[in-house]
Design a protein that fits this description.
The structure holds two protein chains of two kinds. By secondary structure, chain A is of the alpha/beta class. Chain A is built from eight helices and twelve strands. In chain A, strands 7-8-9-4-10-11 form a six-stranded mixed β-sheet, sandwiched between helices. In chain A, strands 3-2-5-6 form a four-stranded antiparallel β-sheet. The longest helix of chain A is centred in the middle third of the chain and has 20 residues. The two termini of chain A are about 20 Å apart. Chain B is mainly alpha-helical. Chain B folds into two domains: about 45 residues; about 190 residues, MetI-like fold (Orthogonal Bundle). In chain B, helix 5 crosses helix 7. Chain B starts with 11 loop residues before the first helix and ends in a 7-residue tail after the last helix. Classes of the chains: A alpha/beta, B mainly alpha. At the A-B interface, strand 7 and helix 2 of A face helix 8 and helix 9 of B.
Chain lengths: ~300, ~280
């Protein structure tokens, strides 16, 4: 008897839509120069189009340039050659079009959970001294109620709002960081190994949460991970980076794998195996236990 | 049970006894030697007795200085007025005023360090100069400062600023550079601009550490202040100590030294309490 198909829940298949790319990475080369030494090449000739609404997992070995690619999209770093276009235009520095959830230091330690979530709204709408005017005070109240609803949506309690980040667990901190990013309604959400430091149980919960949020908001997600299983389960497309030649040549895309919207367990296992074999040919991929075991 | 055990857990009583032991020993030794000296020579001025020091301290808190002609005929005044006209009060106020002005002038040093750390062009402009200035021994500049700014208040305040500001600037600079890059990127992605990030993200995060840095530099501030007062001043705690040294007035000098230590302790305690109250998130405070 054939196995029942497992729904992967990737309802949107934006790659199939004939629309201009939201993110266009064109023939990007990244080199880091050191005085007296030959430049170290990280990425070489990377080209990639990402459509709005896609969930892209970027997977690869340590040091293969996953985070560098993310920083290029974020415009925190500029390529040595080539260009990165967001909505058809290059960006000069990070801005509110991209939400960002790093692995560490994702929250401002001097602000409470509520203040962390409302920070973006306050700096963009209220400004430095604007908090003094009565109209702005009213707006601030609205921000707070919006932040509380985000907080509850993230599975946190209202009583957590007054806590400082150091009083929260790692998983709770990342939930707040996601709320902090999503409340700004960014077109793109960049997550740099955001779940790597979490225990398997928490990680599985976070994977479910981010998938649900992606489905609800339609935000384009770029998710950097070490784990092939996590990459396949979450994404609509898996991008694997690796080095095909000598180390000095830098990394390029070695696999651009669309994940089908539905498939049985064998299909998923096959995809995971393919990603593993391409990315970690000598073994060394993060185990499922380490990565949590999200429901497919 | 060995004293030198890393895993030892001394009881509260033991900790209390150990921590006060050296104080008690010092005080006992002093008065033992002092009483011996006074037995040999009742007019000994090097190690005054407790009674002599108490009398001198009471005099300094209730009587004006001998050289204070304005307050000299104040013996008929009220207690509060006598305290306000007293030598100790006037010296404390004079030193305190200089201390507060110097501390206020250190605030721009914090801002300079912050901007140097945040904006690469500002950093490139100032860093080498501040690093060079930091290596200059401030006391060696004292004659130059007195020539350039005269021997009044400005020279003394400048001495403190020259002596302590480079350290505070470099501390603020390093603390700013130590803020994780992720925090700054996060700020940008949440819509903050360069100055919003500088003041609302970075300054807020480094502020408790900056306060700690200033607190740890309090002794340097007082050192430069005392140097200035001892060399060229007509009032102030250090001026009085230097003046009394000429007359071997140890009965007043020792209470003055203890008074300065107490004041410094109170300022330190106040800053620590303030830091804890203003920054409950700051674990190291």
């Amino acid at each position: 008897m054939a196995a029942a198909p497992t729904v992967l829940d990737n309802q949107i298949d934006p790659a199939s839509l004939n629309v201009p790319a939201l993110i266009r990475i064109q023939d990007v080369l990244v080199e880091y120069g050191q005085p007296g030494k030959p430049p170290k090449r990280i990425l070489n000739g990377v080209s990639l189009d990402i459509q709005a609404g896609e969930f892209i997992s970027i997977v690869g070995q340590t040091g293969c340039g996953k985070s560098t690619l993310l920083r290029l999209v974020l415009a925190e770093e500029m390529p040595t050659r080539g260009q990165v276009l967001i909505e058809g235009a290059p960006r000069r520095q990070p801005d509110r079009h991209c939400g960002y959830v790093p692995q560490k230091y994702s929250l401002f330690p001097d602000r409470t959970v509520l203040e962390n979530i409302t920070f973006g709204l306050e700096v963009t709408e209220i400004g430095f001294f604007g908090g003094l005017s009565p109209r702005r005070r009213l707006r601030r109240k609205q921000f707070r109620s919006e932040a509380i609803s985000f907080l509850l949506r993230m599975g946190l309690r209202e009583s957590d709002a007054s806590k400082y980040p150091h009083q929260l667990s790692g998983g709770m901190q990342q939930r707040v960081a996601i709320a902090q990013a999503l409340i700004m309604r960014p077109r793109i959400l960049l997550m740099d190994e955001a779940f790597s430091a979490l225990d398997p149980g928490t990680r599985a919960g976070m994977q479910r949460l981010i998938k649900d949020l992606w489905r609800e908001t339609g935000t384009t997600v770029l998710f950097v991970t070490h784990n092939p299983r996590e990459a396949v389960i979450l994404a609509t497309r898996v991008i694997a980076l690796g080095r095909t030649g000598a180390d000095e040549d830098g990394a390029n895309i070695v696999l651009n794998l669309p994940v089908p919207t539905s498939g049985n367990d064998d299909t998923i296992a096959g995809l995971i195996q393919r990603v593993e074999q391409t990315t970690f040919p000598g073994g060394g991929a993060e185990s499922d236990e380490q990565a949590g075991a999200p429901e497919a | 049970m060995s004293v030198f055990q890393i895993h030892a857990h001394p009881s509260r009583t033991t900790v209390w006894i150990l921590s006060w032991f050296l104080f008690a020993t010092g005080v006992i030794c002093y008065f033992w030697v002092s009483s011996n000296r006074h037995r040999d020579n009742p007019d000994d001025r090097v190690m005054p007795t407790l009674r002599q020091m108490s009398q001198a301290f009471v005099d300094s808190t209730l009587k004006p200085a001998e050289d204070d002609e304005v307050a000299a005929n104040a013996s008929e005044q009220s207690f509060a007025r006598r305290v306000r006209n007293s030598m100790l009060w006037k010296d404390t106020v004079a030193t305190g005023r200089r201390f507060l002005i110097s501390m206020a002038l250190l605030f721009p040093a914090v801002l300079l360090g912050l901007h140097m750390g945040m904006f690469p062009h500002v950093g490139a402009f100032f860093l080498r100069f501040v690093l060079f200035f930091d290596k200059i021994v401030a006391l060696s500049l004292l004659p130059i400062l007195f020539i350039a700014f005269g021997i009044d208040e400005l020279a003394k305040v400048m001495l403190i600023v020259v002596g302590v500001a480079p350290t505070i600037i470099l501390d603020a600079f390093n603390l700013t550079r130590g803020v994780p890059k992720e925090q700054i990127v996060k700020g940008f992605t949440l819509g903050a601009g360069d100055f919003s990030i500088t003041y609302r993200v970075v300054l807020k995060q480094i502020w408790p550490r900056v306060l700690n840095s200033i607190r740890l530099n309090l002794k340097s501030v007082m050192l430069f202040l005392f140097a200035g007062e001892m060399i060229a001043s007509t009032d102030g705690l250090a001026y009085r100590i230097a003046l009394l040294r000429r007359h071997m007035g140890m009965d007043t000098i020792i209470p003055y030294v203890l008074w300065v230590a107490l004041l410094l302790f109170l300022v330190d305690f106040g800053m620590r309490t303030l830091n804890r109250t203003l920054h409950p998130w700051f674990q190291e405070a």
